[in-house]
What we know:
The chain has two helices and five strands. By secondary structure, the chain is of the alpha+beta class. This is Ubiquitin-like domain-containing protein.
Amino acid sequence: MLRCDLSCKGEKNSHNEFIIWIENHENEREQIKVHLDETISEIKGKIFNGIEPKKSQIYHKRNKLQNQQTIRQCGLKENDKLYIIYGQNIKE
């Protein structure tokens, strides 16, 4: 149940913004536009509607990303793929 507002989709606007892919455990995929200074928690807010960000985890290349980390700190690049898991049993 990935959900991305139209405002987070679009073309690359600057060197600090680019597109990444989000995939969940149901193999649903979405593209979202991110900014290097956005946090993982903010990215979760773009993806979910009505699901608490604390009830989800995001992984990149098998590494769990922390909510307070920025896209820059994670070293993410254009077209990188992130995997998100969510549910009642997930803890931050």
